Amino acid sequence: MTIRLDGRSLSITDLVRVAREKAAVEVDPASLTGLAASRETIERVMAGDDAVYGINTGFGKLANVRIGRDDLGQLQLNLIRSHAAGVGPLLSSEIVRAMMVLRANVLLRPTSGVRPELVNALVALLNSGVNPAVPSQGSVGASGDLAPLSHLALVLMGEGEVVGPDGTRRPAREPMASAGLAPVRFAPKEGLAFINGTQAQTATLALLVHDAWVLWRSAIGAAAMSLEALQGTPTPLDARIHEARPHPGQRKAADLMRSLLTASEIRESHREDDARVQDAYSLRCTPQVLGAVADAIEFADRTAQIELNASTDNPLVFGDEILSGGNFHGQPVAQALDILAMALTTLQAISERRVERLVNPDLSVGLPAFLTSDPGLSSGFMMVQITAAALVAESRTLAMPASIGSIPTDANQEDFVPMGMAAAYKATRILENARRVVACEFCCALQGLEFLAPLEPGKGVADLRSRLRTMPDPVRPLQDDRPPAVDLERIAQALADGLLDPSPPITA
User: Fold this and answer.
1) Dihedral angle at the C-alpha atoms of 151, 155, 160, 163, nearest 10 degrees?
2) Average pLDDT over residues 170-191
3) pLDDT at 232 over 60
4) Is residue 113 domain-shared with residue 218, that is, in the same domain?
5) Residues 357-376: pLDDT tens digits?
6) In a domain, 322, yes or no
7) How many angstroms separate the CA atoms of 225 and 237, rounded?
8) Are 274 and 127 part of one and the same domain?
9) Tell me, what DSSP letter sits at residue 345?
10) What CATH number is associated with residue 417?
11) In this model, does residue 290 exceed pLDDT 50?
12) How many CB atoms sit inside 10 A of residue 77's CB?
């Protein structure tokens, strides 16, 4: 399919299709008309004598330096070259593609004042499949993601580097020429408009939000499977309990979990004469804990959706006026990334607690120690809980917010910055850890069900069990000890691919 950009209606789903599925992009012609009108305002300013930031002045602390008309083009060229100061590992190709579509979409807004030709050139680069090499480190998130976007702009100019299919880096000029792309020369205001923006951190946030929702629903599935394996009670999922405390995420979590447990034979086997009065918090309070996680993801989702279609450069064009402001500041995005990081740390932490209950014979309600039929000679899934604990510990360390850690830059002109890309890196790592911890829970809960056969779990849990047992590389029941790492990585990849997403809910 083709995604049409108009500066107003790009969605996270659209972004995922372009970034990961290589969907083509086209530009709405009406948006180009509005953009051309705003460019006329820039041209009038250039012909006049008034000083306007970034058009005929220097940048940042050098804003008081007036630039002559003959040097306005060179000013933009120097800006891109000098700001391409990124270092470290490269951003993934999907994040770079997301950056490109976001930057094109935002520049289409009539506030940007760039030429339509610049947007068309960026879209052509995106559709060509040429992958710019963009270092991941060097941005503090204001005045936007200057370094990452400058490396992207360098490629448009034919001066940067690209990444080949084999992962090697090489100069951009030849691959661009092979793709039929001519180098772009930034006109006055365009270089500044291109790099003033939050597109690197926003690209990461939007993709993380998409993945966090998939993982959240899958984590509900793992929790339901654990409840069955531990012969817990579904009474705490009763809708009346959650209507009495109507947080949206809590109600959503309880509804999904309840649907997964429909028609459970395991539940019926211990409905009567069960000596336990209440389950532990990690079972009984799953809707409350994962509901709070869902509400945090929803906040991040809302922030990302606004930012996808927001004017984040500076200055901005409004009709005949050009106004300087601070929409390039990434605090909303960085804060959303930090909240997402904390929420995903919570998701994996309660998952690890259920892993402990599954493998610990003092807590597992009759399941054999470490889920092996021959404990002592075999260690079973002893190390799976230790792996989960290690991942949670790392995530807790990473969950310290980056967005509160400003270090002034640019001779104290930019004296409060959000550290959005640091927040993006940490949240990405925490998501990866969370997937693997939920994989640990699926691995153990799946084995726990084996010891309750021939009793069948709820329909939704049985469906998830079937998916795990019939994947192209299936997770087999544990007989003799084997390295759990192989199964854990298989399950983590299945989680990433959405293969264990129980949406839509299973119904009777």
Assistant:
1) 90
2) 95
3) yes
4) no
5) 999 999 999 999 999 999 99
6) no
7) 14
8) no
9) H
10) 1.20.200.10
11) yes
12) 16
The count of structural domains within the chain is 2
Domain boundary among 162, 197, 232: 197
Nearest to 103, CA basis, from 82, 132, 74: 132
Check whether 507 has a pLDDT greater than 70: no
171 Cβ partners below 8 Å, 6+ apart? Answer: 160, 161, 162
CB 230 within 8 A of CB 283: yes
Residue 493, token pair as written in the block = 């990849």
Closest among 496, 450, 472, 410 to 215, alpha carbons compared? 496
Could you tell me the residue range of the domain that residue 459 belongs to?
A: 211-292+347-496
Q: Quick check: is 159 in a domain?
A: yes
- 193 and 216 fall within a common domain: no
The Cα-based distances of 285 to 318, 336, 506 in angstroms read 51, 25, 22
**∠ CA 472-217-419, rounded to 5°:** 105
pTM, two decimals, is: 0.96
The mean pLDDT of the chain is 95
Q: Is the separation of the CB atoms in 344 and 293 below 8 Å?
A: yes
Q: Could you please report the per-residue DSSP string of 91-140?
A: PPHHHHHHHHHHHHHHHTSTTS---HHHHHHHHHHHHHT--B--EEE---
Determine the residue type at 125. L
| CATH, residue 136 | 1.10.275.10
What's the pLDDT band for 473 if we cut at 50, 70, 90?
very high
Do 362 and 234 share a structural domain?
yes
- Mean predicted confidence (pLDDT) in 457-481: 96
Segment 60-64 shows an average pLDDT of 85
Tell me the C-alpha distance between 221 and 417, whole Å: 39
Domain match, 256 and 384 both: yes
Residues 236 and 103 in one domain: no
Bridge partner list, 316? 323
Asked if the structure places residue 331 within a domain, the reply is no
Q: CA 350 to CA 56: how far, in whole Å?
A: 56
For the stretch 72-122, pLDDT in tens is 889 999 999 999 999 999 999 999 999 999 999 999 999 999 999 999 999
List the catalytic residues.
Answer: 53
Tokens of 464: 């998830």
DSSP-assigned beta bridge partners for residue 27: 5
